Amino acid sequence: MSVISGQDALLEAIAAQILGKDKGLHLMPFYISGYLDSLLMGVVICQMATYWHFVRRDRKHIVGLTLLAVLATTAASVLIIIWMAHLFVWGFGIYLPFTESVWLVRYMSLEIATILLVQMVYIDRACRLYAHWWPALLITPVTLGTAAIGSISLNYFVVNFKHITTDTVSSPTISKLVYTWLSLIILTDFVIMTIIVYGLQRVKAGFAHTQAESRFRRVITRCFESQTPAFINAVICIIAWNRQFEVALAFVVLQTKIYSIGLLITLNLRIHAPVSSTANDTHRSDPQGGISHSGPHRSRSSPSPEPDFHLQHVQYTPPSPTDDQHTSIYMQDRQQQLGVKVARSPTGWDSADGYSEEKDDRSTMGLTRDKF
């Protein structure tokens, strides 16, 4: 057990009186935060290992922003490990370390950087989705303002408060800064989510609607593409902050992982998942059920509804068994039909997930790699 003396002894007595009343509520969130952060960091590592195989194919600025976001997330996890060791190992048996603000400020600095980097990637995604710069003009000021408010809040917190107490959390200035910062995060995520979801619906891109698993995977992909998990976590943070600071702390600590995981999953699903025939312009179903090969240049300003890329079934009238000539024609037609199905494999739809290496330069949202 650590030994403290002097003025810190008085602060320790106050902290013990406040936190010792309900250890489960006041101390357990710190422990759970460390566990969940380590768990999600494993997901980040796995997703980053998958994305690393395709780094050379992606745009350099996307790769740079992604790597910086992952590095900031990793640094945040290392900081949390040291923080937990300070609380439960070096400061074992005393309550005062749980009230120190310096660790939270250090973590929040990394969190602000991570959120800014990830949101910049989504802004780039929105611009490429619409092939225009107006999403950046709309979202960038809010994003930069959010980072600025967060930095101002941390600076004010460091200068005026060394320990986190009930009075600190309920301070009018701190409350205004925190609520403003969280509200701007929610606003930015909501604008990004709305713009991307509308853009994806506008271009009619994504998976085909012919299989139940494709619909489910489409929903999951759209969820990550539009940064929905980060938006939900930000809403939970502001609600929990209003109710109980210790509970909000657990969700705040997880924000860096949620943003990074959402970004990496979006990039990886874009590479591996099959695309609909709207995106694959060179292979479309013609009205007679065959495969027509149209040119690769289609107007992006006037998207058409998603056609079903599966072969349409052609009904044949069974020939008379006594008519040898009709039977021969029928067998030739059946062989031609089977030949069309076999001929599909070189087009890039022959892999296990419906998407071969020949087509892995297309996005899951029906856009080429240049569109992300």
Describe what this molecule looks like in 3D:
The structure is a single chain. Helix 3 packs antiparallel against helix 4, helix 3 (28-52) runs parallel beside helix 12 (255-272) and helix 10 (228-243) runs antiparallel to helix 12. It contains 13 helices and two strands. A two-stranded antiparallel ribbon has the order 1-2. The protein has helices at 7-19, 23-26, 28-52, 60-90, 102-130, 134-160, 166-169, 172-203, 212-225, 228-243, 245-253, 255-272, 324-342; strands at residues 284-285, 291-292. It folds into two domains: 11-272, Rhopdopsin 7-helix transmembrane proteins (Up-down Bundle), CATH 1.20.1070; 286-295 and 302-352, no CATH class. It is mainly alpha-helical and 372 residues long. Helix content is 65%, strand content 1%.
**Count of DSSP strands:** 2
Stretches where pLDDT is under 50 for at least 5 consecutive residues are 206-211, 275-316, 340-372
The CATH class of the largest domain, by name, is Mainly Alpha
The number of helical elements comes to 13
CATH fold name of the largest domain: Rhopdopsin 7-helix transmembrane proteins
Q: What does this entry show, briefly?
A:
Pfam families: DUF6534. By secondary structure, the chain is an all-alpha fold. The protein has helices spanning 7-19, 23-26, 28-52, 60-90, 102-130, 134-160, 166-169, 172-203, 212-225, 228-243, 245-253, 255-272, 324-342, and strands at residues 284-285, 291-292.
